[in-house]
Amino acid sequence: MKKWNANENDAKNGNDEHHKSPASHKSHQSPPTDPNRVLPPRGDYQTLLSFQKAEVVYDITFRFAHKYLSRGDRTVDQMIQSARSGKQNILEGSKAATTSKETEIKLTNVGRASLEELLADYRDYLRVRDLPQWDKDSKEALFVREQGRKTPQTYEIYREFVETRPAEVIANIAICLIHQTNYLLDQQLKTLEKEFIEQGGLRERMTRARLNYRNQRPKE
To answer: Which pLDDT belongs to residue 23?
Structure first.
């Protein structure tokens, strides 16, 4: 059985950005765009590390809610739906990127908000039961951060812990992963907003493409 250990030289600060997993910071990296191309080469959501981590969070939450929350407790459905919304909106935002930068930004924001709601549910679970939430610099949190460096991110990385550790450990693992996912989404949103300001939306790209086409046509 694996033991909890930590790299004591890891970054020491607070909030989502300090739960980051360095190997996981890159999202879609768009290649140099053809000025005549109307639809950008996006939509491969499975390569997004934010999606991979959100999917792991969903897989953990589905098992956690059914195992440790009472049957009939509304929180079961709420937590699972929040986890699913986080994952699905990242997916749908990535797919929408081919036609609408605005929709991509909107859906990514919805996914981010859903994960924030889920984060509050996990914190509530620990707080009302007088269970500890790991400090960001604890050996346990640093160990989860180390697992977050592995790519691709899949549930299999965490399966042993989820299936053998008590509820408070699983809740804390989920909290660490949600922080990592939220950090990635914050970086994604900054990039998307910058791209929108610089390149505009579909209408602007279509206008540029038409103008470029007209300018390149041989004059009669």
So the answer is: 43
Helix or strand (DSSP H, E) at 160: helix 159-164
Residue closest to 53 by CA, chosen among 107, 104, 111: 111
Q: Which helix (H) or strand (E) holds 120?
A: helix 101-128
Q: Kindly give, in sequence order, each residue whose CB lies less than 8 Å from that of residue 120, ignoring residues fewer than 6 positions away.
A: none
Q: List for the chain the helix, strand, coil content (%; round to 5).
A: 65, 0, 35
76 is written with which tokens? 């079961």
Q: Which residue has the tokens 């989404």?
A: 185
Closest CA to 101 of 211, 199, 32: 199
Q: What would the mean pLDDT of 52-80 be, rounded to a whole number?
A: 97
- Residues 53, 76 contacting (CB under 8 angstroms): no
Which pLDDT score is estimated for 97?
Answer: 79
Q: Whole-angstrom Cα distance, residue 217 to residue 163?
A: 64
The single residue listed with the structure tokens 């996912």 is: 181
Spell out the domain ranges in the chain: 43-216
pLDDT at 198: 78
Band (137; pLDDT cuts 50, 70, 90) = very high
Burial 11-46 (b: 16+ CB within 10 A, else e): eeeeebebbbbeebeebbeeeeeeeeeeebebbebe
